[in-house]
Amino acid sequence: MLGDREISAFRRGYYELLSRAYLEPPDGTFLHLLRQGVDARVDAAQNLHPALAEGWRILRACLVDHADHGPTLGEAVADEYGLLFISPVQPAIMPYESWYMEKEPYGPSLAAVRAFLHRVGLEKRESLPEPEDHIACEFEIMGQLIVRQEGAAEKAEEERWLHLQGEFLRSHLLPWVLLVCRDLEQHQAAKFYQGMAILARGFIELEQEALVEWGPPTPRRDLLAARVERWGGPTFDPLQIGKKKREGAEGEEAGQQGPACP
Q1: Taking a C-beta distance cutoff of 8 angstroms, is the pair 103, 224 a contact?
Q2: In a domain, 250, yes or no
Q3: Mean of the per-residue pLDDT values for the chain?
Q4: 157 in a structural domain
Q5: Splitting the chain (262 residues) into consecutive groups of 10 residues, what average pLDDT does each group show?
Q6: Cα-flanking dihedrals φ and ψ of residue 81, to 5°?
Q7: What is the pTM of this model?
Q8: Cα separation of 128 and 149, whole Å?
């Protein structure tokens, strides 16, 4: 882990992939990139974790089934994303830490994520439409922690960022993300996102092993254990993950939820 840029690039790449997949419906470019080399990804994943390989196999089936019908695949993914994550009342899946831990939007878990970002000096992108405890945002936070690790000038600094990765993984991702993956795996509307959920589960289980010696031990968090009176909003100004901003129309469209696959 320490000083190994090949491992850090591998980990960062997965976090970026998962963040992009859950933030908004994959567009044609993203789906095309997933389809390229997917056979090699399945083969490589078999040596790492069975769930990682199974996730890629399901994604490959989804992508190959529509290989000759690009627009149809995009529309199917968009429809699936809408069924799972978008609803005028309440989506089938609420991919927020506060919802899984406290059964309330904008709950104490969101305050805790924002406090973590404030403490370590990270910021949320302005163009990011979701609160910081959304699954895509938490994946992006881990990716940004790895970016900081890769840019460390000294061993002690790199160790600090690895300890923060272990802390965030155990404090925020592990208590609830595997539950989201389970719900997606079992949902009848999930096809593309069933594969993505299994992929995420396998990767997070790998991360749990990789970061076992990094970061302080964190107390067990039970669902609803932190439930308090409904929290009214952020404890400080919204932060921004990273300094990068989307350009042009992409920034204007950031507030819109997008499509999903069969």
Answers
A1: yes
A2: no
A3: 84
A4: yes
A5: 91 97 92 91 94 96 69 85 87 95 93 96 87 96 97 96 97 96 95 97 96 86 52 37 42 40 36
A6: -60, -45
A7: 0.82
A8: 23
The first and second tokens of residue 241, run together, are 């993950």
Paired tokens of 55: 């996730």
- Give the helix ranges, DSSP H, for the chain: 5-23, 28-35, 38-46, 50-65, 70-85, 97-102, 108-120, 135-150, 155-168, 177-186, 192-210, 248-252
172: which DSSP letter?
I
Domain hosting 97: range is: 5-244
Angle (CA) 127-128-133 rounded to 5° is 160
pLDDT per position as a tens digit, 40-88: 999 999 999 999 999 999 999 998 876 555 458 888 899 999 999 997 7
Query: Is residue 198 in some structural domain?
Result: yes
Are 97 and 103 in contact, with CB atoms under 8 Å apart? no
Residue that the structure tokens 């900081």 belong to: 148
Q: What is the CA radius of gyration of the chain?
A: 18
Q: Is 127 exposed, middle or buried (0-12, 13-18, 19+ CB in 10 A)?
A: middle
Helix or strand or coil: residue 134?
A: strand
Number of domains in the chain: 1
CATH code, domain carrying 134: 1.10.3480.10
Residue pointed to by tokens 């998962």: 18
What is the CA 127 to chain-centroid distance, rounded? 16
